[in-house]
Amino acid sequence: MASNMPILSLFSAFFFFFLLLDHLVSPLPETCPEQFCEVGDPIRFPFRLKQSQPNERCAYPGFDLICNAQRQTTLNLPISGEFIVETIEYTQQVIMLRDHPEGCLLKRLQDFTLSGSNWTVQHNIELTLFKCPKTSWYPGMPQLVPCLDGQNYSVVAVTSDELPQQRRRLSSIGCSDNGTVTVPTVDSANPLFDDALRYPYAFLLAWTVPSCGSCGAGFGTCGFKGKKGLEITCTVDHGSPDRRADHRWIFVAISIPCFIYIVCLFSQLSRKFRARRQAQQDQTDGLSPTDRAQALVVISGMDTSTIESYPKTRIGDNGAPMPQENTCSICLSEYKPEDVLRTIPACEHSFHAHCIDPWLKRNAICPLCRAPQGYVTNHNFSV
User: Fold this and answer.
1) Within 10 A of 376 (CB to CB), how many other CB atoms are there?
2) What residue ranges are annotated as transmembrane (predicted)?
3) What are the backbone dihedrals phi and psi of residue 168, each rounded to the nearest 5 degrees, phi first?
4) Over the stretch 69-106, which tens digit does the pLDDT of each residue have?
5) What is the DSSP string of 315-366?
6) β-bridge pairing 340-344 and 312-314
7) Burial degree of 128 (CB within 10 A; 0-12, 13-18, 19+)
8) Cα 258–260–261 angle (5° rounding)?
9) Top-tier CATH class for 289-362
């Protein structure tokens, strides 16, 4: 078995090398990987899916999302309630929300508040609502809001830009003012502003803390710095996808010569090891069986079960006499009544049990006459 150690070491080196190669060439595992509901965008920091990511360090406070029964991503605002997440723009730090299909967004927005949350409103669209007779209609009539309709009237919503022109036309067909609603959105310079005009179905909120937009734009990973506190850091170790590929090829180019060197080194060590073992084997080939046994047990010990099978006596019990040798040749202490002794059957020499037991575990020979004893745990020099 000992002769196979260099081979086992070489295989271990191969195995370790390929594990390391796979670890470095493959993307590193993330503490908070992206999560998905069946419907919606990927979820990553500063958000988390609370059901599947119990680690609170995966999300900034107030950015917990959940998957509803329809497997849609939802956000629960402290006072205004739950909304469906339409999309998340991480670089713009904007989230688009809508109401449930059976809900009425403009009705909910009449009492909408962001108190107690991290969200901000960059811009507002002011909508004026009009009640119109059910049968009234004209080409270019503003957006209908069916969820606000009554039994005998329909409701339309008009933006502040269209209001001067539309008011006259709506009044001409019997429509009357029915209040206003403010729809949260983003600045007009934001590419998402056009999407905000899809009222009455969606609205936009922004966040400024934590600031991770530039990190995501640079292919970095945003997250907490350390295990405590709210300080944010951007990790860009892997770079862009192209740079990650370049780094992997660089690693492969460097590692191949290193691996060849390791193989050559192990090969050289294996040859030296085998030569030394062969020299030890040659030294014992000309010895008699007794001398060979003595040479072998020098590096061997006995197993515990064999040692325990040797007789053990207590001086004075049942008339047990004092040994002929008055002194234990291991600890050099004189024997006293009540001392526990163990006797080696082959030569009948006795010693303190607490002295001879550890001795035989290391050296399978009698410490007094040097006679080899019993079964040894390792006694083969062969290659």
Assistant:
1) 21
2) 249-269
3) -65, -45
4) 999 999 999 999 999 999 999 999 999 999 988 889 99
5) TTGGGPPPPSSSB-TTT-PBP-TT-EEEEETTTTEEEEHHHHHHHHHH--B-
6) antiparallel
7) buried
8) 65
9) alpha beta
